[in-house]
Amino acid sequence: MILxxxxxxxxxxxxxxxxxxxxxxxxxxxxxxxxxxxPEELINADRDIIRDYDRLGDGVWDIFxxxxxxxxxxYISMLDAFGNGDE
Length: 87
Description:
Shape: elongated
Structural class: mainly alpha
Helix content: 55-70%
Strand content: under 5%
Order of helices and strands: HHHHHHH
Radius of gyration: 15 Å
Number of helices: 7
Largest sheet: none
């Protein structure tokens, strides 16, 4: 689980490719990282919630197809599921 959570954004945020991950960790880990990675067209898109909040204030919640409480629940659940990386 720690390896997966550490690898979730490695292709998006670092100078690594899926081929690098496959070479170092094998096909199974590469498939997990690929499955958890965002599509290429979204990686550089302006979709950062903090940036949007700075620009829109509480209007940022209108962007989502869910309520503010539901969005908060989602991100808190993801934090609980994957931990904060201190393990």
